[in-house]
Amino acid sequence: MELDHIKSRIAAAERAAGREAGSVTLIAVSKVQPAERVTAVLDAGHRTFGENYVQEAQGKWPDWRQRFAGVSVHMIGPLQSNKAKAAVELFDAIHTLDRISLARKLAHQIAEQGRTPQLFIQINTGDEPQKAGILADELPGFLDQCRDLGLSPQGLMCIPPEDADPVPHFRLLRRLAGDNGLDLLSMGMSADFETAIAEGATHVRIGSAIFGARDAG
Ligand SMILES: *Cc1c(COP(=O)(O)O)cnc(C)c1O
């Protein structure tokens, strides 16, 4: 299956970058994929998945968590504040913390539920008006605000502009993380994950290269 091929490409990219084997977490992005493709990857032993929509994730992961021990589900899509409660219930990591109103809602739910999903702050590295994420300059102030709320973001996430060379965006994300004492970097998708690993990604988000095109089947 494609999963094995992607895993060996990740291992090769780790070696090429002089990085420790297993230092990169593969998030298999299962959004809108037919159930049988996802269960095939679960049957093959993979346990870390990414979803973009709270409602869709609610419809499938509670059942799969019962059937497959050790599943971890990461929210990688835009998160509406009114879905914060469900998101804290459902997800082990949230990659799209991008505004203080959401940080407040998450902090409240984390305190209420006693669950602490790993948090990544999304950075709009390309300064694109239509794209989610805070601007690079805003990060230090945003982090202070998050910490005042009792949150401890551990990493940064970006989606480079389409059709652009992703390298400057990956480098910016890495520099920002280093400058702000954050360890995790969520960057790299099907088309550019090896480049992202060379630039320090700790989490790659790969959908179509594992499961096939999302509009097929
Ligand atoms: C859908 C999605 C991915 C996976 O994209 P592929 O190109 O299929 O690998 C990764 N990250 C985010 C934020 C996504 O929405």
From TrEMBL:
On whether Oxidoreductase is a keyword of this UniProt record, the answer is: no
Annotated positions of the N6-(pyridoxal phosphate)lysine modification: 31
Against Gene3D superfamilies, the record matches this protein to:
Alanine racemase (3.20.20.10)
Q: Where's the Alanine racemase N-terminal domain?
A: 3-214
KW Lyase (keyword) present = no
What keywords tag this UniProt record?
Pyridoxal phosphate
Which NCBIfam families does this entry report, sorted A to Z? Answer: YggS family pyridoxal phosphate-dependent enzyme (TIGR00044)
Q: What family is this?
A: Belongs to the pyridoxal phosphate-binding protein YggS/PROSC family.
The UniProt function text for this chain reads: Pyridoxal 5'-phosphate (PLP)-binding protein, which is involved in PLP homeostasis.
Name-wise, this protein is: Pyridoxal phosphate homeostasis protein
Source species: Paracoccus stylophorae
